[in-house]
Write a structure and sequence with these properties.
Chain A: Pfam families: CcmB. The complex is a heterodimer. Chain A is mainly α. Chain A has helices at 4-18, 23-39, 43-62, 66-69, 71-76, 78-83, 89-118, 123-151, 157-178, 187-216. In chain B, helix 2 (89-99) runs parallel beside helix 4 (128-141) and helix 3 crosses helix 4 (128-141). Chain B is an alpha/beta fold. Classes of the chains: A mainly alpha, B alpha/beta. Chain A binds chain B through residues 1-4, 6-8, 10-11, 14-15, 18-19, 72-73, 75-78, 80-87, 92, 216-217, and chain B through 11-13, 46, 49-53, 68, 71-72, 74-76, 78-84, 86-87, 91, 94-103.
């Protein structure tokens, strides 16, 4: 028998496989592909702004699946089932966040080095981008889940969630891009990213859980 | 084991829906919750399950073997069946069983509710009645002593309703409790009736709720 959080994690992985999990990577690719058309064929410029473009693309790509992250469970009664599990509700929400990160954010982390080459980003910088995304995207996944919880049940929730989340994502974006700069010591920005990931990792499930509890009332 | 509600007052959206609801159900007992639309039948079941915290009063489980929250002893079969379209019938049930901490056999539960031949069918291919049967299978493969059934006969055909009555009867004989918001006779025998359309909203003292 699988423990309840693990069961939820595995179920969400299976649902993502059957429901277009690769959409985020396609969107990420489109952002990276369109950038040279917008800024021109200046390779030096592309190489310089490449990490920022990769981070922006990844940030926007993480928002794509938010409208269905909790909405589907809300609509079909799945949230009630999750609530009745013999595990803390917040832990179950944590399992959903982990599944969301695994299916939405992890592919972006893996794709980032490949897309970095398209922007003429150097190998060392590309590695830093991937590492920064690996550390920073869990914070984005947690923020996204809180936003999804706040807007679940609303008719235009899919549009409202990103509006709520993007301002809160700015610190992650700032430190994420700073951690990719090859000309500086990245210990500070990377430590800040780790800190944000840990804080959001703890507060995210609690905030989303509390929001969903209030929603039931 | 005994499930007790004392002076239960529940609100939704700032409006009091239920006020001073009182009842007690013993092991093997049943409570039929009736009342007009909007009387608060679903609200009561959701409150018992812990999904809606009461404004005042309490629901408590007496004589339980452990200190786990009462919700862990309850199944709530609501209006929504929690069937995922993208998963097979079998995968849907495996998830529900594991999420609810059950250890029952999935295949035997599906056979019992008449879905044994549809194991590999995606949830999207099921009719409303079949989804209801799949929800009933959850009760079997993750056994819990208290069943909260909200209009459980909805979408079920005559044979489905007969199956439900059988399951309820077996559950009660095994010492389980059933609280149902329903207009159908679910083999409740001498179970009590709680009419939310009445002002008192309590189970009359003279009604035997043990059987």
């Amino acid at each position: 028998m699988t423990c309840p959080p693990a069961a939820l994690f595995l179920r969400d992985l299976a649902l993502a496989r059957s429901g277009g999990a690769g959409l985020g990577v396609v969107f990420f690719l489109l952002v990276v592909t369109l950038t040279p058309f917008a800024v021109g064929p200046d390779l030096a410029l592309l190489g310089r702004i490449g990490p920022a473009i990769l981070w922006l693309g990844a940030l926007l790509a993480t928002l794509l699946g938010l409208d269905r992250l909790l909405q589907a469970d809300h609509e079909d009664g799945g949230l009630d089932l999750i609530f009745l599990a013999p595990a803390p509700f917040e832990l179950m929400i944590g399992a959903k966040i982990l599944a969301h990160w695994t299916t939405t954010c992890l592919p972006l982390v893996i794709a980032a080095p490949l897309f970095g080459m398209m922007l003429d980003v150097g190998p060392e910088t590309t590695l830093r981008v991937a590492l920064a995304l690996l550390v920073g995207t869990p914070a984005l996944a947690c923020l996204g889940t809180v936003g999804a919880a706040l807007t679940v049940g609303l008719r235009r929730g899919g549009l409202l969630a990103p509006v709520l989340i993007l301002p809160l994502s700015v610190p992650v974006l700032i430190f994420g891009v700073a951690a990719c700069d090859p000309g500086r010591d990245v210990t500070g920005p990377m430590s800040a990213l780790v800190g944000l990931a840990l804080v959001y990792g703890v507060l995210g499930p609690i905030a989303a859980g509390a929001t969903l509890r209030l929603l039931r009332e | 084991m005994r499930l007790v509600a004392e002076a239960l007052t529940v609100a939704r959206g700032g409006t009091v829906i239920l006020e001073n609801v009182v009842f007690a159900v013993e092991s093997g007992g049943a409570l039929s919750v009736i009342g007009p639309n909007g009387a608060g039948k679903s609200t009561l079941l959701r409150s018992i399950a812990g999904l809606l915290p009461p404004l005042s009063g309490e629901v408590r489980l007496e004589g339980a073997d452990n200190d786990a929250p009462p919700r862990e002893s309850m199944h709530l079969l609501g209006h929504l069946d929690a069937v995922k379209s993208g998963l097979s019938v079998r995968r849907n049930l495996i998830f529900a069983r594991d999420a609810l901490g059950g250890e029952g056999g999935v295949s035997s539960a599906l056979d019992r509710v008449g879905l044994g031949s549809l194991e590999e069918l995606p949830g999207s291919a099921l009719s409303a009645g079949q989804k209801r049967r799949l929800a009933l299978a959850r009760l079997l493969c993750a056994p819990r002593p208290i069943w909260l059934l909200d209009e459980p006969t909805a979408a079920l055909d005559i044979r489905g309703q007969a199956l439900l009555s059988e399951l309820v009867e077996e559950h009660r004989k095994a010492g389980g409790m059933v609280i149902a918001a329903t207009h159908a006779d679910l083999a409740f025998g001498r179970g009590a009736t709680l009419d939310l359309g009445l002002a008192s909203r309590s189970v009359p003292a003279e009604v035997d709720i043990d059987a």
